[in-house]
Design goal:
The chain has 146 residues and is mainly alpha-helical. The chain has six helices and two strands.
Length: 146
């Protein structure tokens, strides 16, 4: 019986199958890379907060321990947002007339909470808390243990 396809068809078939496998794997890799990229997850995108608050300034520059503001960090699975009274402990004495802190003063006066936008991109699960009481240093959005 005569062959239906020439011998070169085997090579073409193998190249086509290999090409499809590479194409499917490449498409999966590209989709995964785009899906988990900062472009779609918005990691490292600064959030618009009611007050231009900087952990780096307060912790690194001023030397305030994280636990001063985040009192529940060692007892809870999240750091929590401190009450306005905690901010006013210092800011009744410094930056008293600053327009940047008008929201804090209004919140303190009225008893209403500051409408912070939750930042879920900050994760301290790499730290060994709450088992150890290691101080955390915030450096530009990421938190590391010291």
């Amino acid at each position: 019986m005569a062959q239906l396809f020439p011998k070169s068809a085997n090579v073409h078939a193998r190249v086509t199958i290999l090409g499809l496998v590479v194409l499917i794997c490449g498409a999966g890799w590209a989709t995964s890379t785009i899906y988990w990229s900062p472009y779609t997850t918005e990691v490292d995108v600064p959030l618009q907060q009611p007050i231009p608050f900087s952990h780096k300034h307060h912790v690194t520059d001023d030397g305030i321990d994280c636990r001063y503001c985040h009192t529940s960090v060692e007892k809870s699975s999240f750091a929590g947002i401190p009450p306005t009274k905690t901010c006013m402990n210092c800011h009744q004495q410094i930056w008293v007339g600053s327009d940047l802190l008008a929201v804090v003063r209004d919140s303190y006066r009225t008893g209403e909470s500051i409408p912070w936008v939750p930042d879920t991109s900050i994760s301290i699960t790499a730290c060994t808390w709450p088992r150890e009481s290691a101080a955390r240093i915030a450096t530009g959005g990421s938190i590391r243990c010291r």
